[in-house]
Design brief:
By secondary structure, the protein is of the alpha+beta class. It has one domain. The protein has 5 helices and 5 strands, in the order βααββββααα. Strands 1-3-2 form a 3-stranded antiparallel sheet. A two-stranded antiparallel ribbon has the order 4-5. The protein is globular.
Length: 112
């Protein structure tokens, strides 16, 4: 049986799931450069120290969505999005992701 391959449709469901989006120092540098901000400015305005103090995460908006998710245009940092985002759903996912994600729905649709 052929292995199923995930092809992101950029529906944004993973961007709208509350929780940490961990970012590395290299990702901070890349995103800050992309946004034309100083790294310290980016860190102060767009990151939070994770509760376990093991690193920084992108902040969420009031609805619990990634601060860089825009419902009309998608990911505002798509070319430099963090590894965690690039690796969804194989590197990380959330319970029931395949029922929320547009590509997951297609991938796991029951065959008639």
């Amino acid at each position: 049986m052929p292995e199923k391959t995930f092809h992101c449709l950029r529906c944004g469901k993973c961007c709208c799931w509350p929780g940490y989006v961990r970012i590395s120092e290299a990702e901070i540098e890349a995103i800050a450069r992309f946004l034309q901000l100083e790294e310290m400015e980016f860190t102060a305005d767009y990151t939070v120290l994770m509760a376990d103090r093991t690193g920084l995460s992108l902040i969420e908006d009031a609805a619990g969505h990634c601060i860089f998710w825009d419902e009309n245009s998608g990911c505002r940092i798509q070319p430099v999005k963090p590894r965690q985002c690039r690796e969804f759903p194989t590197g990380w996912n959330f319970p029931g992701w395949e029922r929320e994600c547009a590509a997951g729905k297609l991938l796991y649709a029951k065959e008639s």
